[in-house]
Known about the structure:
The chain is an alpha+beta fold. The chain contains five helices and 14 strands. Strands 7, 8, 9, 10, 11 and 14 form a six-stranded antiparallel sheet that branches. A two-stranded parallel sheet has the order 1-4. The protein has a two-stranded antiparallel ribbon with strand order 2-3. β7 and β8 form a beta hairpin. It is elongated and about 60 Å long. The relative contact order is 0.17.
Amino acid sequence: KRLDWESLSARIHPAESRITKLSEETPAIFIGFDAIAMADVDLTGKPFSARRQVLVSAYAGTGTCKISRVTTDAEAAADWFERFEGAGLDGVISKRIDGHYLPGKREMIKVKHARTGEAVVIGYRPHKSQPNAVGSVLLGLYRDGQLLPIGGIGAFTAAKREEYLQLLEPMRTADSVQGEPNRWATPEKTGEWVPVRPELVVEFDYDQMEGMRLRHTAKFKRWRPDREPSSCGYDQLEVPVNYDLDDVLQEGE
């Protein structure tokens, strides 16, 4: 058993009937790691250690409400960082034991995995507000001879967005194709993108895969003219060992 981000994302839906249906088909659990209030008592001025104890007292062992593990042992945290990814976790969070909760500020450090891969550019999405520019570059990897989409890269400077459009425009193979509908957008917005010939290879930074796709948007690293597109397969990616989510969570302290 592991966290399933794709199933969880599907639960976020504006239609109440759909929410009810999915809550029965794919039941979810709540995992708490901090508490900022209990009933009408404000806990933001309390240290994390005190807030944590309130959380444990209120929710530990209550079925669908679970509590994340905590430790002050750096070696244990490093071990969790490596092992627990197999249960679907992004990484570990570091918080001050005596730190207060600061609204609007990030009083914590999220330590995530940092990896590099190479993928084939399969298309792009035009920028919504910058004329003659790409909004994002879409990537693909080969599996059993088939080129499958894995996600994209979206953070570029304005100058690079225009430069990459000039690079990709001559390679387009169709005016546009439709992607999966965006459940938060109006029905006519369907994730339109422009396919290109699979000739360019890009090296990118990423943190984690979710199934066959990138969990988060990748970061451009460099072009790889020395790589053949056909050499970019899923086998290059690091796959964490599966780990049971129940072993990650704790019922009490």
